[in-house]
Specification:
Radius of gyration: 20 Å
Keywords: Exonuclease, Hydrolase, Ligase, Nuclease
EC number: 3.1.-.-
Helix content: 10-25%
CATH architecture of the largest domain: 4-Layer Sandwich
Order of helices and strands: EEEEEHEEEEEEHEHEHEHEEHEHEHE
Organism: Sphingomonas tagetis
GO molecular function, one term: exonuclease activity
Number of strands: 19
CATH superfamily of the largest domain: Ribonuclease Z/Hydroxyacylglutathione hydrolase-like
Strand content: 15-25%
CATH class of the largest domain: Alpha Beta
Shape: globular
InterPro entries: MBL (IPR050698), Metallo-B-lactamas (IPR001279), RibonucZ/Hydroxyglut_hydro (IPR036866), Xnuc_lig_assoc (IPR026360)
Length: about 325
């Protein structure tokens, strides 16, 4: 008797679909790659063909140069060999998708990275009933229960108001997190100019080109200290404590990441204001998603697989961990 999902072959460098002659999120160059989203641990350069949403292809071109791209819109189904592939929103970042694979009466959903919280910068996650659900587990431990987004943005604004002679410098991942922080601030009525590190400019421009209104953004480099007092400045996490940040007016150092739940991580980065703001599902959202989709089998990857596999088995849900190489924390 054939094993459920045996037409998918997990390898350290990605998931191979022989019947489609394709790979999902391969970490090495392949002739045909189906890419869930634009983060570098999922989207690599050098593939022969890239099948992805138009937004993900645009992100890959911005990062790696021209791609041999095959754009697939949300809800569109393409035939690859004997397999039907449909891209549906994952709610992670702009253009992020789950890839729904149908083959000989079985359905497997490769979710990529996803979250369930509302995000004004991307389409929301859509649950898809399936036989096998392949889930991430970046925050796959019960300790990770993210607070409300508005509470974290309130903390940021309160810090700014409390010390108007300083600035608040927020470390945020260049793709997805930086743009989300900006949009969340705008949604809370913050209309002042927001200053950004030059490394964020290209992807912020790309978001604007795809219809995400970020309001007035100004470059932070070359601006007098006095002008930056009482301002919010965004930079990549690596710039929080480097020479670039030393020219700012006594910055309140903040970091927007799901990892800010872990105090040791905040201390390691000298973060004064931890902002728990994640683009991944937390423990409750992971388990709720599994209950909602109710797959016959769960495959777990990218994170804390053991705890989620154990949770499933306690509830008589068949589950196993996939050992895929090359996935990073992304400074979530």
């Amino acid at each position: 008797m054939a094993r459920l999902g045996d037409w998918l072959q997990p390898h350290p460098e990605g998931i191979h679909i022989p019947a489609a002659d394709a790979w999902v999120d391969p970490s090495q160059p392949k002739a045909r790659a189906l890419v869930t989203h634009g983060h570098a641990d999922h989207a690599r350069g050098g593939h022969g063909e890239v099948w992805a949403t138009p937004e993900t292809l645009a992100i890959m071109e911005a990062r790696y140069g021209p791609q041999t791209g095959r754009p697939v819109a949300y809800g569109e189904t393409v035939r690859l060999g004997e397999v039907d592939a449909t891209f549906v929103p994952a709610g992670h970042v702009l253009g992020s998708a789950q890839i729904v694979l149908d083959f000989r009466g079985e359905r497997i959903v490769v979710s990529g990275d996803y979250k369930r919280r509302p995000d004004p910068t991307c389409a929301p996650f859509e649950p898809v009933p399936c036989d096998v659900f392949i889930t991430e587990a970046t925050f796959g431990l019960p300790v990770f229960r993210h607070p409300e987004t508005t509470d974290e943005i309130d903390k940021l604004l309160a810090a700014l108001r409390a010390e108007p002679d300083r600035c608040v410098l927020v470390g945020a991942y260049a793709l997805g997190k930086a743009q989300r922080v900006i949009r969340e601030l705008r949604g809370m009525g913050f209309d002042d100019p927001i200053y950004i590190h030059g490394a964020l400019q290209r992807l912020c421009d790309l978001y604007v080109e795809h219809g995400v209104d970020l309001g007035e953004l100004r470059p932070a480099t070359g601006v007098a200290k006095k002008e930056l007092q009482g301002r919010i400045i965004l930079c990549p996490p690596g710039a929080l404590n480097d020479r670039w940040s030393r020219r700012l007016p006594d910055p309140i150092t903040a970091m927007a990441s799901g990892w800010m739940t872990v105090r040791q991580r905040a201390r390691q980065r000298n973060v004064e204001l931890p902002l728990i703001l994640s683009d991944h599902a937390d423990w409750d959202e992971l388990t709720r998603t599994i209950r909602e989709i109710a797959p016959r089998e769960l495959w777990v990857t990218h994170g804390r697989e053991d705890a989620l596999v154990h949770w499933c088995r306690e509830r008589q849900i068949k589950a196993r961990a996939l050992e895929l190489a090359g996935y990073d924390d992304e400074d979530d």
